[in-house]
Amino acid sequence: MDFDLTEEQRALIDLVDQILADHCGHERLTGLEKEARGSGIGSVHDASVWRALADAGAVSALLPESADGGDLGVLGLVLLAEAAGKRTAYLPVVAAVALGALPLARFGGHTDLLAAVAAGEQLVTAALEEPGEPTTLTTTARSSGDGYVIDGAKSMVPYGDLADSVLIPAELDGEPAVFVVPRSSMEVTPLLVTGRQPYADLELEAVSVPGTALLARGAEAVDWIRDLGTLALAAEASGICTEAVAITARYTSTRKQFGEPIASLQAVSQRAADAYISAEVLRLTMLHAAWLMDDAARGGETAPSAEISADIAIAKFHAGDAGSRVLHAAQHLHGGIGVDTDYPLHRYFVRGKQVEQTLGTATRQLLRIGAHLAE
Predict the structure, then answer these.
(1) Which residues form the Acyl-CoA dehydrogenase/oxidase C-terminal domain (predicted)?
(2) CATH number for 150
């Protein structure tokens, strides 16, 4: 089998890498962080680079041909998220694409909004988390005339304070449904998180929306959006870990003790090798799950939905568990400089921690995987 990227996928990554290399160096990211701390809560959004990616067609390339896109789909998404993770760029790849553009394209009905997102003119995200148990949907929607009225609260919404519209899952007539709701109609509380990306809590109190706001009905729609967001986060974690290992390899190859590079020490080389293997396992499981999900979205029959969900859970487990081991190893092998907040590795560590905290505990993923194996 040929596991190489297609010409279109390689062209996408080359384009994205060039833009990020030109605009997401350590000094510029440091400047953005200082500017954010001085002018607000401290969250960072690199609007100019996001618009540059959109202008270059990096977002529209992922959309289906029916939406005038390049049809690179889920695999294109994870490659884009991985590239952003390697640069620790402050970009809404997960929020605007995995939780916004691709769901809009899949379920249809909001052509103008999707075009604006693809052009970088608007942001759309999804509010999947609520206070309390993660499997409980307490936000409700009820019919009112030709539209709906929504009540509830959402927590830890990525780009929830900057998005123009938010996909809101709510209970409607005894089943989950997803609505497209303007952010201006909700009460927004911005949050400062570990990775410094924009997050917010949202409250909806008798929010009225038209009938066209209904995007999709059924638990499968909500699960699909959640799985896609999970895969994008795992891809971002893969990029973060891959680059952290590369930074560590360069450092240990040039840092000398007693006249020899510390990479020549057995304990150092073994720890670095373990980190490399963990990063590769994360990337392999992430790409495998993305391939299965992409094939299913195109009408393939490679695996049932339960198996795809289990593979996504495996990638999710490695993104949190193995990702944490990789980043701790990278810090330890750097010695004191590893915890210096002015050194680039620190940004990789906190971004990796943010992904780990967002994805949840490893135990929950193991239980999900075990339940699938027991069937």
Answers:
(1) 227-373
(2) 2.40.110.10
Rounded distance between C-alpha atoms, residue 270 and residue 367, angstroms: 31
The answer to whether residues 139 and 65 belong to one domain is no
Asked if residue 137 and residue 72 are part of one domain, the reply reads no
Domain span at residue 365 reads 219-374
What are the tens digits of pLDDT across the range 309-356? Answer: 889 999 999 998 888 899 999 999 998 888 888 899 999 999 999 998
Beta bridge partners of 179: 168, 214
Cβ atoms of 306 and 375 within 8 Å: the answer is yes
Total domains in the fold of the chain = 3
Q: Which of 49-58, 132-141, 152-161 has the lowest mean pLDDT?
A: 132-141
- Strand 124-126, strand 165-172: pairing: parallel
For 195-220, the pLDDT digits (tens) are 999 999 999 999 999 999 999 999 99
Domain boundary at 174, 191, 217, which?
217
Triad 76, 81, 87: Cα angle to 5°: 135
Q: Are 154 and 84 found together in one domain?
A: no
Residues 274 and 346 in one domain: yes
Q: Are 198 and 183 in contact (CB under 8 A)?
A: no
* Residues 124/101, Cβ–Cβ less than 8 Å: yes
Are 269 and 231 within one domain?
A: yes
The CA distances from residue 369 to 158, 215, 355, 362, 372, in Å, are 26, 30, 20, 11, 5
**Domain contains 2:** no
Query: Whole-model pTM?
Result: 0.93
How sure is the predictor about 1, in pLDDT bands with cuts at 50, 70 and 90? low
Q: What are the helix (H) ranges across the chain?
A: 7-23, 26-39, 47-55, 73-87, 102-107, 111-118, 219-254, 266-297, 305-334, 344-359, 362-374
- Nearest Cα to Cα of residue 164 among 211, 112, 226: 112
pLDDT tens profile 148-188: 999 999 999 999 999 999 999 999 999 999 999 999 999 99
